[in-house]
Amino acid sequence: MAAAARALVKFARATATIIGGALLVLAIFMAVTWAPDRPVAALKPKWAQPPSTFVRIANMDVHLRDEGPRDDATPIVLLHGTSASLHTWEGWARALRDRRRVIRVDLPGFGLTGPQPADRYDLETYVAFMRELFDRLGVAQCVLGGNSFGGHIAWKTAIADARVRKLVLVDAGGYPNPDAKLPIAFRVAQTPILKHVAKVSLPRSVVERSVRNVYGDPNKVTPELVELYFDLAVREGNRAALLKRFEQVSHSRPEEIAKIAIPTLILWGGRDRLISPELGARFERDVAGSRRVVFDDLGHVPHEEDPARTLAPVLDFVSRRD
Asked: What is the pLDDT of residue 27?
């Protein structure tokens, strides 16, 4: 009995030492990578310079940029992907705004717009948001484009709202994607213990690795780009919103995608490690009359990585009278 008791005490001490060491490592890690939420007011001077504006939509102060001629009857509306922002479309907007009205928006839960008031991040809520956005900005018809999660919202909106006359899907979500090579930031956000730590701790290196993961050529990722993604990730409430979004969003059934009945252009990066180029081919098969263009050397955000080259087929597409 005495030997058993001594063994039990020894085991308890060893266990306590291991737990204590793990807690110490965790404490040091959090101290080094401490990144509390930043209020939106502190980020506006850097990331909401003109032509940025904030418009009250769906009980949120929504960050958007609405540029170009107001007499454009069919504006181009662009939606970013997960953890991105309206800045991802800067290259396209710069090339388009002299001749077309271009509307970019930070979607609820991201960028400077921040969390949705009711913590609703299901696709139906995003579609309702888009319809209210059209109402608020007086959009009677539009070309709607979206990348990744923004592409998922775009095609769902196109099915639900006849004001969408043409659709541009850029490495769009919508199909089950179990083989995705998720950026490390996304993996952390879906890991039970780490996701809670991530609410107050975010190494800049994790953001950099995640951004590099979505580029075909990671060497194109600049310190300034990493700073943009990092700052908007720590916007007050965005990390908590991302966790809820991962919990709430599910993929649509393939038969829903087949309901798309408007002219559709599909753009894809051949080096997309997040959403396989094979799913781009599947969109082309399921969307009647669609056209697909693949950029073999680009990644998951081809419009951001090479704006000029990826915009060329879009200009041809939007100029056609289908």
From this structure: 36
